[in-house]
Specification:
Elements lengths: L1 E6 L5 H13 L4 E5 L15 E4 L6 H12 L3 E3 L2 H6 L2 H10 L7 E4 L22 H8 L3 E5 L9 E3 L2 H8 L7 E5 L5 E8 L3 E6 L18 H18 L3 E9 L2 E6 L9 H4 L1 H21 L11 H4 L26 H8 L2 H12 L1
Parallel strand pairs: 1-2, 1-3, 3-4
Antiparallel strand pairs: 5-8, 6-7, 6-8, 9-10, 9-11, 11-12
Length: about 350
């Protein structure tokens, strides 16, 4: 019997609905439950074929537990190794490389020194930064947000450079990004599950949190197709099994604003009944699919196209085959030559010795 577990924190509605839905589908040899942990032994099988992770971004102990479980063969949704390595600034750079529209973005050093560092730790950093070039590139108004993390925490709207310096001084040790504002006419938050299922939800970040999904944006079918394609492309490259992508539309052009949300909001009071039903049903079927495919003791994680690429030094380049050289056939040996060829070294030595005597 294979077990599907869900690891979660303060959310109430989604975890129970997910477990109930998997068990209602009742796939042969598979059932779901809340993950229980009473010990974590290195390299030991945790007993779950699949774990849906909803909390490890906030609990380092859980992240370490999931890595150990993955090493023993558990299919963890999402891949805990990639999730640990990922950040929003890298995501933007990758999106730009693969042809997805993103706002202009700049990485900023933290305002306060990190722990256990001094001025001497930053001798490679030019001070002051080239602020004029940065501000010309981004423009104002702009947004400032942490380069990693989510939940709309520490997000600042900036009117001008004076406003920037004032608010940046409040960010402490956080590494921030300065980002071009996309003055949108439409905005969408999109679930993506399994790198293949997409649900586009009208969403208005200007509303209070409890009203953000109560938006009436209606894009053309061509725009919806373009958004769907971008959402799939991003998640397939990043390798996320369960994620949301936020899209701002300016002049009918979609821009990916935030797409590093591997534990996205799925709470019934927040997302609404129709969206909740979709995410419960789709995630339950996907977890079952992963449980069926799971091979004990093997690597059962999803790895995105970006990390699947072979590095240049390991790639076997297709080299042209060397031309076959024409080697002349050896001449037939004479009887004398043949005899000499088969004469053993010992016999030759013996003959020489007899002559010397």
């Amino acid at each position: 019997m294979k077990k599907i577990g869900i690891l979660f924190g303060q959310e109430d509605t989604f975890p129970q609905a997910f477990v109930d839905r998997v068990n209602r589908i009742n796939p042969p040899g598979i059932f779901a439950e809340f993950v229980t942990i009473d010990k974590v032994l290195q390299g030991a099988d945790c007993g779950y074929a699949v774990i849906l992770d909803r909390i490890s971004q906030d609990v380092p102990f859980y992240r370490a537990f999931l890595k150990n479980a993955a090493a023993a063969g558990t299919a963890v949704i999402n891949n805990p190794f990639w999730w640990s390595a990922d950040d929003k600034f890298f995501n933007n750079a990758l999106a730009q490389k693969i042809g997805v529209n993103v706002p202009r973005t700049v990485l900023l050093p933290s305002n306060a020194l990190p722990d256990n560092t001094t001025d001497k730790s930053f001798r490679n950093l030019v001070y002051p930064f080239d602020w004029n070039t940065i501000f010309d590139y981004i423009g104002f108004p702009a947004y400032m947000k942490p380069y990693a993390g989510g939940g709309w925490k520490h997000v600042y709207q900036l009117d001008d450079k004076e406003d920037f310096f004032r608010k940046h001084s409040e960010t402490g040790q956080l590494v921030m990004m300065l980002q071009e504002e996309i003055d949108f006419s439409q905005y969408y938050r999109c679930y993506c599950i399994g790198g293949k299922e997409v649900r586009i939800m009208p969403y208005n970040p200007r509303n209070t949190p409890n009203l953000r999904y109560q938006a009436d944006f209606k894009g053309s079918s061509a725009l919806m197709e373009q958004i769907t394609e971008q959402v799939l492309t991003l998640n397939q490259y990043l390798g996320y099994d369960f994620n949301t992508v936020e899209i701002a539309v300016r002049s009918e052009v979609p821009y990916a604003i935030d797409f590093c949300n591997p534990a996205p909001d799925a709470d019934l009071p927040s997302v609404g009944e129709e969206n909740f039903e979709w995410v419960v049903e789709t995630s339950a079927h996907y977890a079952i699919e992963r449980a069926i495919a799971q091979k004990p003791g093997k690597d059962n994680l999803t790895w995105g196209k970006f990390v699947q690429r072979t590095p240049p030094r390991a790639r076997k380049e297709a080299a042209p085959k060397p031309k076959k050289e024409t080697v002349p056939k050896p001449k037939k040996a004479t009887k004398t030559t043949a005899k000499k060829a088969i004469t053993s070294p010992k016999k030759i030595t013996a003959k020489k010795q007899s002559k010397e005597k």
